[in-house]
Amino acid sequence: MLTVENPLPVPMRREILALAAQELHPRGAGVAALRLVQARFGWVSTTHLREVAVLLGMSADDLDGVATYFNLLFRRPVGRHVIMLCDSVSCWIMGREPLCAHLCRKLNIRPGETTADNAITLLPTVCIGHCDHAPAMLVDNTLHGDVDTTTLDHLIDTLRDTP
Amino acid sequence: MTPPSERPLTAMIDPAAGPPDCTAYEHNGGWQATRKALSSLAPAEIIDMVTRSKLRGRGGAGFGTGQKWSFVPKEPATDRRKYLIANADEMEPGTFKDRWLLEGNPLQLIEGMILAAYGVQARHGIVFLRGEYDLARTRLHRAIGEARQQGWLGENILGSGFSFDIHVHSSAGRYICGEETALLTALEGRRATPRSKPPFPQTGGLWGAPSVVNNVETLCNLPHIIANGPEWFAGLGLGEDGGTKIYGVSGRVAKPGAWELPIGTPLRQIIEEHAGGMRAGYRLRALLPGGASTAFLDADAIDVAMDYGSVEKAGSRLGTGMAIILDDRTCPIGMIRNLEHFFAQESCGWCTPCRDGLPWVERLLDAIEDGTGQEEDMDQLGRHARMLGAPGRTFCAHAPGAMAPLASGLKLFAADFAAHIQQGRCPQREGARP
């Protein structure tokens, strides 16, 4: 069984080494390697971070400094789906705050938390470049614009039913 | 022969059909510039043409593109490692133009990069793409693969002896990565903090090698400049600046969106004709003309021409050219608070005035917005606006950019600040925090 406590699968280790080989210095592949790990496991555990650091010839602390710097790298577990609600100015003007309040009530969580059934994590995010369709959000990397409470409710119900 | 489009950047963009493939791109005039450059133009001629075109960087700072390239050492690509980097880390709140170009016609960006790389003699190209742009990443990878397969990228392009290839770096989300030196630090696998200049990236950039960092929209203009000539391009602008510009409007207008128009198009025309004017029941109160890091302009400045010099004369910056509208039913203090929350969160933390000053500003605005602000808070906000604002005592332009809406807002919305403090509440609840 593939878990965050097990070593990285051999093909992934090879892929990370290949990424590092494309760079002038292996550490240039740090973000790409961490994104690869996260795409597979949902987040970057300390076990995996240490392994990536060894592969890239970096100290684990050095790589953790990079991992914790970026908004899209998760150093804690997230739910099966991640909703990133844009909190920047155009979305704010177009009603992002009441929408966030509605979402929090419906999911019974606050921003930064995961639902009790581990289905959905709600995160704020900075401008996602969809300001002409504000308020906007990303759901598992898929862009949604002109969001209102009705579309939001439907989306959440769909997500809960999706593994 | 078909005359060149007056909207060259977007002529091939059709959201319903998706981006053109190599064949469609060529059929519609693509690759002409690359053929012309690699067969009959010297690298120095490319730089000269771009300088004469009056193209200024479209990422926000507006530096002359040809001038920027002129600082790069002239050795041939085979003698020295150099980098050409497309800055596709579009995270300025209110700005969504590069997404449109990346998703709509990635081959145009690729061709622009080939031309820029040939001009400065770089063999290595990188697209620094923001992590949230998933569709753009997919389309860019597909376009690069196709261009490579058809010989537009790789070794000895068109038998010219010039070799160039592009790698996509998918970032993981930090606004400061859009700052060119922070972007280089990020590419080297470090926390993306800005670097001291000099050395400038053109002489000592990525891994110490000469590097040019250009915005996506800037690069997308290059095929049209080279194919149709710098005079034609310069003539597209209505004033001092050359070319077209992608302008956008967000907020409570009838039709928010983005449009390619001659640079120097009056703001009134953009808002009233293209964005359809204000929504019913809303009045224009003020706006940020070029994204979150530009100063507010009052509604009576709506006739300003949207070019670099005119917007500066009006008291703000063209920035990314993407206007954010403040309507009369949205609380200006809440809007400024939202902006400063963003800048405080996205401070990289490298220098103390920015790291400590911006959260302080945010806390003061929180208090005023929530009704617990004091008169003396206004002095503190004014002091921050002066001390962190342009020309700045901070390491990079992040804090001065953050202070632009605050400093202008303190003047423009003085009565609103006073009302919040005197009444102990936000008098304009709609649009404010619940």
UniProtKB/TrEMBL annotation, chain A:
InterPro entries: NuoE-like, NuoE_dom, NuoE_N, Thioredoxin-like_sf
CC cofactor note: Binds 1 [2Fe-2S] cluster.
Keywords linked to the UniProt accession: 2Fe-2S, Iron, Iron-sulfur, Metal-binding, Oxidoreductase
Molecular function GO labels: 2 iron, 2 sulfur cluster binding; metal ion binding; NADH dehydrogenase activity
Entry's EC annotation: 1.6.5.11
SUPFAM superfamilies (UniProt xref): Thioredoxin-like
UniProt xrefs under CDD domains: TRX_Fd_NuoE
Positions contributing to [2Fe-2S] cluster binding: 86, 91, 127, 131
Pfam family, one: 2Fe-2S_thioredx
Record has Metal-binding as a keyword: yes
Lineage top rank: taxon: Bacteria
Cofactor (UniProt): [2Fe-2S] cluster
PANTHER family: NADH DEHYDROGENASE [UBIQUINONE] FLAVOPROTEIN 2, MITOCHONDRIAL (PTHR10371:SF3), NADH DEHYDROGENASE UBIQUINONE FLAVOPROTEIN 2, MITOCHONDRIAL (PTHR10371)
UniProt xrefs under NCBIfam families: PRK07539.1-2
Family: Belongs to the complex I 24 kDa subunit family.
Protein name (Swiss-Prot/TrEMBL): NADH-quinone oxidoreductase subunit NuoE
From TrEMBL, chain B:
Domain named NADH-ubiquinone oxidoreductase 51kDa subunit iron-sulphur binding: residues: 333-378
Superkingdom as given in the UniProt entry: Bacteria
Pfam family, one: Complex1_51K
Cofactor: FMN; [4Fe-4S] cluster
Keywords on record: 4Fe-4S, Iron, Iron-sulfur, Metal-binding
Matches recorded under SUPFAM superfamilies: Nqo1 FMN-binding domain-like (SSF142019), Nqo1 middle domain-like (SSF142984), Nqo1C-terminal domain-like (SSF140490)
GO molecular function, one term: metal ion binding
Family annotation (NCBIfam families): PRK13596.1 (NF010120)
Family as reported in the entry's similarity comment: Belongs to the complex I 51 kDa subunit family.
Name of the protein in question: NADH-quinone oxidoreductase subunit NuoF
Source organism: Komagataeibacter xylinus (Gluconacetobacter xylinus)
